[in-house]
Amino acid sequence: MNVPVNRAVALPFLRAAADAGPHESPLSGLPLTVLVGVTGVGKSTALAALQAVTPAMKVLPDRREITDAVMIWPRAGGPVTDREERFRLTAEYRAEHPGGMAYALGTLLADTQHWGHQPVFDGLRGLEEVQYAATHFPTWRFVVLGAPDAVRVRRLLGRADTFDQVAGGTGQELQKALAELKGVQDVFAPSELDDLNALTDQGFAAADILAKVKIVVSERRNYDPHAAELFLRMLPPERALVLDTVALDPAGVAANVAAWAGEQA
What are phi and psi of 152, to 5 degrees? Predict the structure, then answer.
């Protein structure tokens, strides 16, 4: 059965309610495995590894779907694809509900006949979310993935994701447009901006480079992945696995996640 969290968007076998029905459990009390990281850090690889070692593990609707159902539609009254506008609306939700996505997940009941008792969620971002989750939901455990921002831009350029959209023109010469991008100096060093500008020599379109840099800058304005990682490193190792997805290739990430998940199973 599909039970709507609001009138516009339905989440399968999940609902927001105070009283659990037969075979329902609050996500807040289940041993949920949570992937932590911003766009382009390698969460898809980690998720595949988790599913390989625990084939019965069910993956909850992802962050985008939860965001649409709980945060976007109730405020916008319809779909929002522009990433900057989505960030604005989710910031409003976080202002009302400290913990943001972690709070939203904690309000949901899950039909355990469908989701089982050890689902996985992709994912949480930033210190506020992980701190809230780790403090309020002691059964949750975390796989933390990190990569430098310049690496994330290159990874985003290497994939076609229709969600990664930012409205706005890209008619200016790339180097000037990058330098004028609000907040870019807080994220990228001048030498990194030069390297990103030089990606046009590798065949990438200037408009695509600028769009991906905007995504990374926007995320960093809203979430601090480094603060989240530092906080989760203080948890016991059985609750948090922290991986550098640059130092480890995809096979290494998968092996580490699989070994950790196997120990916790």
Answer: -60, -40
With contact defined as beta carbons under 8 Å apart, do 41 and 219 qualify? Answer: no
Q: Please answer whether residues 121 and 33 qualify as being in contact, where contact means their C-beta atoms are separated by less than 8 angstroms.
A: yes
List the chain domain ranges.
2-148+223-264, 151-220
* 4: number of Cβ within 10 Å: 13
Query: What's the pTM?
Result: 0.82
SS3 of residue 223 by DSSP: coil
- Rounded Cα distance between 153 and 200, Å, is 13
Residue 54, classed as helix, strand or coil, is coil
- DSSP H helices, 54-198, are 63-67, 73-76, 83-96, 101-106, 112-115, 126-136, 149-157, 174-180, 190-197
CATH 3.40.50 for the 2-148+223-264 domain, yes or no: yes
Other Cβ atoms closer than 10 A to 250: 14
- List pLDDT tens digits, range 92-134: 999 999 999 999 999 999 999 999 999 999 989 999 999 999 9
